[in-house]
Design brief:
The chain is of the alpha/beta class. The chain has a single domain, classed as NADP-dependent oxidoreductase domain (TIM Barrel, Alpha-Beta Barrel). Helix content is about 35%, strand content about 15%. It has 13 helices and ten strands. The strands form two sheets. The protein has an eight-stranded parallel beta sheet with strand order 3-4-5-6-7-8-9-10, with helices on one face. The protein is globular, with a radius of gyration of 18 Å. This is Aldo/keto reductase.
Length: about 325
């Protein structure tokens, strides 16, 4: 395993880390037993950072992490998120009283005394601009409830704003071969600012595994079914904002990236990690097999300059115009 500095926090986190949305819920059927085996396999391979949220399975993902990391609280870092259990547009959701309740509830489920990275979970820009929530987070940090805080953002504009907030030590962003915009301005500015970059949805909800066809379907409780067009939350959180049929078509055109790189998934995440401004990727998983497949990213070769140019041109000419939602 290789590790990278999480901005200027002093924490070193594994290049391939893991998100827990899938084992918490909203990605179809999952097994707690297999999830725990997957978490154990990840840690055995040197993974020391996991991302979760209080709304993943209504806290179930946090409880699974507590069980898996018991006794390793000092060397396995956990990032969790808050605000989406309430009305994200209501300023009261970000009041000191409410945020303290969210924080204490997460600490209890995680069975920890301190959260390593506490993130605001995709709030509206107006809430960030108001700034009151950052004052609350500063208090929680001073009290030792949280070690550092950050923001999970939907757009580059939100990310750039957060770089001006001194306490924000990490940004979590959607970035993949189908969503390249953050690399243009946000990433280099974050690097210069000492702000870590956590990349979520590195495989565009599975599109970049190459396993889907036009006939693929998803369970009713899978966000790839119920949020395919942004019905429940930001459309960018599902298939990187692409219509599913177009995403499958575009993924087929990218199959060449897997040549000599194990799989499309490994190649896609290798491309992300080739960006020196990225701290880590946080793919999801529901099985040991998926954990092992994601970790093979570390073994595949980087892309050549010619390949990088080809991928950039493909994005500009074939992908960019089909992305929906603000980003």
């Amino acid at each position: 395993m290789k590790y990278r500095e999480l901005g200027d926090t002093g924490l070193k986190v594994s290049e391939v880390s893991f998100g827990t949305w899938a084992i918490g819920g909203s990605w179809g059927v999952s097994s707690d037993e297999e999830a725990l085996r997957g978490l154990a396999a990840a840690m055995e391979a040197g993974v020391n950072f996991f991302d979760t949220a209080d709304v993943y399975g209504n806290g179930h993902a946090e409880e699974l992490l507590a069980q898996a990391t018991r006794g390793r609280e000092d060397d396995v870092y956990i990032a969790t998120k808050f605000c989406r259990a309430g009305d994200i547009h209501d300023p009261q959701t970000y009041s000191e009283r409410t945020v303290r309740t969210y924080c204490e509830s997460s600490l209890k489920r995680l069975n920890r005394e301190r959260i390593d990275l506490y993130q605001i979970h995709c709030p509206p820009l107006a809430i960030l601009q108001d700034g009151a929530v950052f004052e609350v987070l500063d208090k929680l940090k001073a009290e030792g409830k949280i070690r550092h805080y950050g923001v999970s953002v939907e757009t580059v504009e939100e990310g750039l704003f957060c770089l001006g907030v001194p306490g924000v030590k990490a940004l979590q962003v959607i970035f993949n071969l189908f969503r390249q915009k953050p690399a243009e301005e946000l990433f280099p500015r974050a690097k210069a600012n000492g702000t870590g970059i956590l990349v979520r949805l590195p495989l565009a909800s599975g599109l970049l595994t190459g396993k889907f066809t036009q006939a693929s379907t998803f369970a009713s409780d899978d966000h790839r079914h119920f949020n395919a067009n942004g019905e429940q939350f930001n459309v960018g959180e599902t298939f990187a904002g692409l219509p599913f049929a177009k995403g499958v078509e575009l993924a087929d055109e990218l199959r060449w990236i897997a040549e000599g790189r194990d799989s499309m998934a490994s190649a896609s995440m290798r491309w992300i990690l080739d960006n020196p401004n990225v701290t880590c990727v946080i793919p999801g998983f529901k099985s040991v097999q998926q954990v092992e497949a994601n970790l093979r990213t570390l073994e595949v070769p980087s892309f050549s300059e010619d390949e990088l140019s080809r991928l950039s041109e493909f994005y500009e000419a074939n992908v960019k115009s089909h992305i929906r939602g603000a980003y």
